[in-house]
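Re-run with default settings, no changes from the original entry. Doing this only to confirm the output is reproducible before filing.
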Amino acid sequence: MPLVLGVDSSTQSCKVVVVDTSTGAVVRSGRASHPEGTSVDPEAWWRGLNSAIAEAGSLDDIAAWSIGGQQHGMVALDESGAVIRDALLWNDTRSSRAAQDLIDEFGASALAARTGLVPVASFTITKLRWLRDHEPENAARVAAVALPHDWLTWRLRGFGPDNPALDELVTDRSDASGTGYWNPATGEYDRELLVAALGHDAILPRVLAHDESVTDAEARRVGAGAGDNAAAALGLGAAPGDVVVSIGTSGTVCAVSATPISDPSGTVAGFADASGNFLPLVATLNAARVVDVTAALLGVAHGEFSDLALRADPGAGGLTLLPYFEGERTPNLPDATASLSGMRLASTTRENLARAAVEGMLRGLGAGLDALRELGIPLERALLIGGGAQSEAVRRIAPEILGLAVEVPEPGEYVALGAARQAAQLVA
């Protein structure tokens, strides 16, 4: 049976899996690291993708492939197909003022109705406004705007500065729905909002349906791809009633919905998913790194950190950590800082500090579940994934904080597996 390849080009690394479509088994894999930072030269992603594919045995025997990738990042291209400046990633908060400017101009309710989103610094539309305001010469050069998975798909299909066919850029509903200038209810770009952000119109990737495909230079079938959260939900087989709670560099809470969601408060982003449905999502900037930084502060490895947290009573003796170490996206507090409160002689222990870190991180995600409930989205089961889900303390404390039955699937590259599942549908 055919082999298919799925990619997860994330903030930190590129992961590739090769899947046998007859068994669903991963038969080969590859991985490459990405540079740190919130502003990155996309060529680093291209090098990482090629390295990971080579480690996974090349594309030679692959029948179809698809790419999942980090959402929102702004890849600005000139008319020659060259990248104009480093991409601003989802976790770059310099465009927080631009987000407020757009809200002031159009109104939060109107933007939510038109795009499913109320702008925050994460979304592409705010990064384009920042570019217009702070680098007008670069903004004027922009001929096309792509997201990370769009651009990597374009490059791997054989396009780029040596073959600058900008009209060959393609994307999918899930990633388009995270830009802030696409309407998930109508499936159309909102050109007025794009122009308001960038200052002029530009080529945008054609939005493919979840089961639509294009081809690469070797006539292999190429899936539409997906944003990372949508690809992970597809890889997990998430269905209505499920909420996927991912604890990685960022924290996300997303649920599958048959109908589009509009939240004028901006707490819930009304994304589309990778199966033709919708994926209302709440995201936090502070997730697994909350545990990382607290474990480092305590001078312990993650296993010992988990033991410390589980030796403390629920509530950590009144010790509370508000974990806004990197500002925060939800709530929209880009300049916030972390704080530790409730310190008394009796409560200020290593065990309580570890427990407070876990509870603080999970409370941020729990607030996301509450926001989904308030919009009438049924939640029956939480699927806990990501690096943070491997902590025993996180797994055991999560049901108390989230108020749901929690299942922890076997560790896996679910974004890459979701992309592979999409590719497999093309050769079934």
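The CA atoms of residues 128 and 198 lie 5 Å apart. The longest helix spans residues 350-374.
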